[in-house]
Amino acid sequence: xxxxxxxxxxxxxxxxxxxxxxxxxxxxxxxxxxxxxxxxxxxxxxxxxxxxxxxxxxxxxxxxxxxxxxxxxxxxxxxxxxxxxxxxxxxxxxxxxxxxxxxxxxxxxxxxxxxxxxxxxxxxxxxxxxxxxxxxxxxxxxxxxxxxxxxxxxxxxxxxxxxxxxxxxxxxxxxxxxxxxxxxxxxxxxxxxxxxxxxxxxxxxxxxxxxxxxxxxxxxxxxxxxxxxxxxxxxxxxxxxxxxxxxxxxxxxxxxxxxxxxxxxxxxxxxxxxxxxxxxxxxxxxxxxxxxxxxxxxxxxxxxxxxxxxxxxxxxxxxxxxxxxxxxxxxxxxxxxxxxxxxxxxxxxxxxxxxxxxxxxxxxxxxxxxxxxxxxxxxxxxxxxxxxxxxxxxxxxxxxxxxxxxxxxxxxxxxxxxxxxxxxxxxxxxxxxxxxxxxxxxxxxxxxxxxxxxxxxxxxxxxxxxxxxxxxxxxxxxxxxxxxxxxxxxxxxxxxxxxxxxxxxxxxxxxxxxxxxxxxxxxxxxxxxxxxxxxxxxxxxxxxxxxxxxxxxxxxxxxxxx
Length: 562
Fold this sequence. Notes:
Residues 36-495 form the Major facilitator superfamily (MFS) profile domain. It is found in: Endomembrane system. This protein is an all-alpha fold. The chain folds into two domains: 26-257, Growth Hormone, Chain: A (Up-down Bundle), CATH 1.20.1250.20; 259-496, MFS general substrate transporter like domains (Growth Hormone, Chain: A, Up-down Bundle), CATH 1.20.1250. The protein has helices at 2-11, 27-52, 55-65, 71-99, 103-121, 130-144, 147-157, 161-188, 210-226, 238-246, 251-256, 262-294, 298-329, 332-350, 404-433, 439-467, 469-489, 512-517, 524-538; strands spanning 197-199, 204-206, 361-362, 389-390, 504-506, 559-561. A hairpin with a 4-residue loop joins β1 (197-199) and β2.
């Protein structure tokens, strides 16, 4: 018990940092505010995890449930999640702005997330048209993930300007780790096998595919409890901070006095779309790409991609830690361009194949080698002859193979460039918008990221499957390059708006002439009292003749802000 008390004391903030201890909030309010921010971190991690945890396993799982389903339908299933999120993100942002609180939208979305995850894990029961049930479950998980817009809006409202970069980098870290840790968890549960364990008279199946959904159910239940009033309390500090700086009388007057740069805002929204598109394309394509290029089996692809993505998570963690120190040395807009987008451009170029021969060509089960019905002569789907780049993809026979070295190098550059880019886009975006309620704007930002996640899987089905790696990564390289050039040309606008702080004005000692010439005049008795006070102030005395406190400043040296 004593050990727990000491541990709790160790993790409890004992005092407000010196640079923030300006009387804007008490120590208890500071602790409460940061507790709420850390709950937002966990929520962002969970929403990203809900999308990525099934990415490496969705194709083998779909193939098991419905062998007739193809990669294009897999692309639709993956795209269903961000499609639902894209539609509902602005609506969730508007809802939270309308209510003036984020609690109800978040509790509702987490309840939906739990139900949809349980639905996904129950697909082993094989209902009629199972692939459409999978599509529905992923769409509902996407709808619930629209709460990301609400989380981003709250983070902007609950952090001060000096805290914003660090807070956004941490929430971006949570989100990226969710994207990267998900496949790692999928790799971990492969130990359960595709058959796994069956309980409750066959109604509860726990295997390498369904375990991912049950992990989501457990974590979302915990997250729901975190948002109950006893634990989570909203603390909005950003508008009050700017209100005091600008000397305004209300928070609404404060944010209305700061007009955002809409060109910069939309530039960052488009840049966010391009950045997320390239990252999600790689995550979506990763498993099937390695199976095509390196002739890995289903289990090998899930296992090795899990290792590669988990290593990327460690690299991303180090990168996130370095963002705040980098931005203290260099301007945020330049770190975004040269540290984020430039590395992403190099990462895409590295994926243009430079092998000296095409990849291993694979036969297609029941297509190029049909099933005859003879159990002794028919080959099994996991036979080595079916591993490699499918013969039905005509480009496989003429396009050079991607090497494992360039795949790993490109992934390392992505693991560095993406965290920098996604963090600083959101940081600069929130600063450009100022202290105004940002629910709808963050909904648009989230919606652009969702659109890229919708198009990524569709891009895999339409471009990669039909035209191959040269077209896929050539197109994405050009997209990233032109986005970087546009940011470079717009760099002077990618800064937070200047706060025109009024200069303090020294109060002058009044004399009789000033009073007479003003719009009002002092009576003789008032004038006598004024002279007594003026004489007393010069002699460090009050009007009764008592000596003033030595710590008090003379009257004529006081200053006040207009």
